[in-house]
Design goal:
The complex is a heterodimer of chains A (about 110) and B (about 110). Chain A is mainly β and about 110 residues long. Chain A contains no helices and eleven strands. In chain A, the strands form two sheets. In chain A, strands 2, 4, 5, 6, 9, 10 and 11 form a seven-stranded mixed sheet that branches. Chain B has about 110 residues and is an all-beta fold. Helix content of chain B is about 0%, strand content about 55%. In chain B, the strands form two sheets. In chain B, strands 2, 4, 5, 9, 10 and 11 form a six-stranded mixed sheet that branches. A five-stranded antiparallel sheet of chain B has the order 1-3-8-7-6, with no helix packed on it. Chain B is globular and about 40 Å long. Chain B starts with a strand and ends with a strand. Classes of the chains: A mainly beta (about 110), B mainly beta (about 110). At the A-B interface, strand 4 and strand 5 of A face strand 5 and strand 10 of B.
Chain lengths: ~110, ~110
Amino acid sequence: EAAVTQSPRNKVAVTGGKVTLSCNQTNNHNNMYWYRQDTGHGLRLIHYSYGAGSTEKGDIPDGYKASRPSQENFSLILELATPSQTSVYFCASGDRTGSYEQYFGPGTRLTVL
Amino acid sequence: GEQVEQLPSILRVQERSSASINCTYENSASNYFPWYKQEPGENPKLIIDIRSNMERKQIQGLIVLLDKKAKRFSLHITDTQPADSAMYFCAASRSGGSNYKLTFGKGTLLTVTP
C-alpha cells in the first residue's frame, strides 16, 4: 500500500510568518506534487518535482516555494503567509512509468490569521 | 497548459439509479484521464482511469467513456448506493517521459439518497 504522510496535519499561522509543510513518501516514487484544495476550485497544482534536487512550478506557484532534498521528502514553504493561503494542502506521489496513479497524503489544514 | 471543465458541480440521485458526471478538456495531446473520489475529511483516491487508446472502460459499477474528437470524457455510476456519496474529480494529463502532471476539474458533489 502506498504511503504518503504530511506534517503538521493542522497549522494556524500569522500573516507575514513563515510556514513549512512537510511531506514524506515511502513508495520510492520519482514524482511528488503539492496541491491546494478550496471549495469551488477543486485541486490546484502549486509545485511538483521529478526527483531529488528538482522543483517545478505548477499552475499557481506565486507565494510558494518548494524543496525536494531527497527522494522521500518534499516541502512546501510559505515565506510570508497571507490569509488568502488559508486552505487544505495535499501532497501526492506518483511514478512516471507504468501506473500513473497519484497517491495523496492525508492533507494539512492551514489557517492564516 | 490544460483546462478541465466538470459538470455538474452538484448531483443528487436516488439510491439504485445511475449518476453521470461529464468533463471536457482543451489540450488534444492529453492522453490520460483519471477519476478520483474524495470522501468527507479524507484524501482523494483513484477509482478508475482511461487512456486515449480506449473508448470505454468498466470496473464493476463504474463506467468511463472517452470521446477524443469531442475532447469529452464521462463517469457513469450504475446502481448507486449511499456509500457512493462523495466528491468526484476528473483530471486530464499529457503523460509520457518525465513530464506528468494532472489538471483537475472543480469537482462534483454527489449525494445518493435512500
